[in-house]
Amino acid sequence: MPSITVALLITVIKLLLLLLLHNPRGTWCQNFEKSRSVWVEQGLVKGKIFKIDGRQVQIFRGIPYAEPPVGTLRFKKPVRKQRWEREFSATEYGPPCTQFMDFHKNDRFSAQNMRAESEDCLSLNIFAPYNSEDESGQHPILVWVHGGSFLAGSSDTGIDMEVLARNLAFRNITFVSVNYRLGLFGFMSVHHPDGHVEGNFGIWDIELALEWVQRNIKQFNGDPTRVTLMGESAGAAAVSALAVSPMTKDLLSGAIALSGSAVAGWAIHRQGGTPPNWDMANIADYIRCNKLIDEADLSDTLAQVPMTERDRWHKHCNLQERIPECLSNSAGQSLNTAEMLACFRLHVNVSESPMFWRALAAELGVSKMVVDGELIIDSGTELIRAGARVPLLTGVARREWAHKKPLFYLFYRYVNYSREQVESAVRRIVENGFANTLSARMTNSTVDLVANATFLRYMQDVDFAYDMPGVVARLQDLESDVEFVAPCQAEVNAYVASGVPAFVYSFDFVPRGDVVEEDRRFYPMFGERSVGVRRRDRKRKGHEQDAFHGLDHAFIFTEGYSSNFHLEPYTRRDKAMSRLLTRMITNFVATGDPSTRNFSWPPCGNGTMQHASLNMPPKMIRGPIHFPTPTFWNDEVRMLSKYQMADPSGRANEQAVNELTYEERVQLRAYKRAWYALWAFVFAIALLIWLLIVCAVCHWSRRHNGRSAYDNIVVNR
């Protein structure tokens, strides 16, 4: 009997441990103190007050700020939420917006809520300091825009509420996080025959949320005159665009962009002559199967479902279960723009063919913003120069794509690769990355010119016979520089030119523990059950770690966790980095200056360019971030891209050359003179070598053939 009791006790303890491990928010139950109700323009809303370490925080989750964007409101700007009759319970997160990638499906803090994804998703959450003795205080506001390629994520992904309270609310910051439409619903663009462009619906959502904050945040002890918008990755690009938009002139006082910029080629579609990937007509072609999704993207998508379901999806074109009648080839070919848009509004059902939309997202990539002439009036640095007006804090990680695997570069086996294969990988990055930052397409010959210059810049000292990991590391650097470093510095330059303060950083902190990545996939040998996969990246000699994309997120909202990876262990040194980073952010939100008591962080401007290296300890470094990378991409390569090489008939493209400024023409002539001088030098060396060879041959001939033909004749007298 005692043994049974002990066994039962052990079982109960195990169950309790499992509940604690799988419910990181469980401690909130014991911290709950009371409810609080406040009036907003829509009516009464009820939240909760929690007590942590003797301090109080008020939390309101899932407050709708717009009408559900469904039916006739699909693919339109959001509409302000109407009044509700009864008290609205804002005690749980609202459903996330429809996801087009499964990146966050196993998120430690939002996985359960992710299962409730919906088109009716436009809500926001508020975490604010609370003092029951004085409810009149007003605190500066930080509005958070999540990342995820504009295809995935929500306002609660990667956010530990208790850590958030300690890092932000207890530093007298009112924190607001926002859901916005993604993928098809948030970023499908519609090009009308009269030239008018509709799109950016997800960005309009954020703009409306900022309006809601202005009208209602005082009720939550927030100061509407001090609103800073902060985002990471794609969220940072949205922040970058909104900070300079004419629609947000009275809505913002500052902006923080972590690893993302509107100047990047993946952020805003630039090439006016070609429609963006997420254009309505292009998507319709995939639905009709006039265009087929790449087999690799189909396979990657099906790897996320059990084996028995794969055959079911494979039977359908592009993994679709049903094609809307109005978009079938028999009916859809004759639709005009307005009719096709009506068809998308009323008859396209994402839930019917989820595998198709996942595969299509993999095929089309980031769902970009577009220039609509209203919210986003331009692209590139022209957009920044036209609207820069509030202080900016921005930066990048030391090596943004350091966690990308070889298969991202089509290296499927761990073997050594030839120079030609690496040249091909470099060219793909130039075509798919840098070319998207230009307002016009490059000719093939110009792509070759830029790719060759890039190859020399990044690969000239790589041993291609043996150093495959070294090749991948250089490709990671190349892609990081094109997509993050150069755009960030270009944006900073535009702010400086406009006389607006810009604080720049490089996140260089590297944890001393392991970085553990987690995922779940289906494998044939394991049947119908998904298998958890853990990859531990250890710091070891010859394999030094670097700060990578999203690592800074793990020091702001959690204790060492971001979607799909975490730090083991989370050390005192890591906690010190968290305190430093969040102190810099909260200081910027409160005062417009990220400097701390022990670290002075001056902005760029007045002829000086510097950035903060965020490490332990931090330090200021003179010059642009990761110099000379930004100069190579923003000046040298951009100038080469404007110079079109001669076509087969021998005629040069004079229009592209005429677009160069006087300074660029002078620099181009200098490059051409240097190019000619290089070839002249090579020719001179070759001529000298040839002359030396000729002289050597002549000298050798004289030594061996100097005697007369008659020297061997002996004459007897």
Automatic annotation (TrEMBL):
Name of the protein in its database record: Carboxylesterase type B domain-containing protein
Signal peptide: 1-29
InterPro entries assigned to the protein according to its UniProt record, in alphabetical order: AB_hydrolase_fold (IPR029058), CarbesteraseB (IPR002018), Lipase_GDXG_HIS_AS (IPR002168), Neuroligin/BSAL (IPR051093)
Keywords: Membrane, Signal, Transmembrane, Transmembrane helix
TM helices/strands, residue ranges: 674-698
Family to which the UniProt record says this protein belongs: Belongs to the type-B carboxylesterase/lipase family.
Keyword hit for Signal: yes
A Pfam family matched in the record: COesterase
Domain Carboxylesterase type B, first and last residues per copy: 35-619
SUPFAM superfamilies associated with the record: alpha/beta-Hydrolases
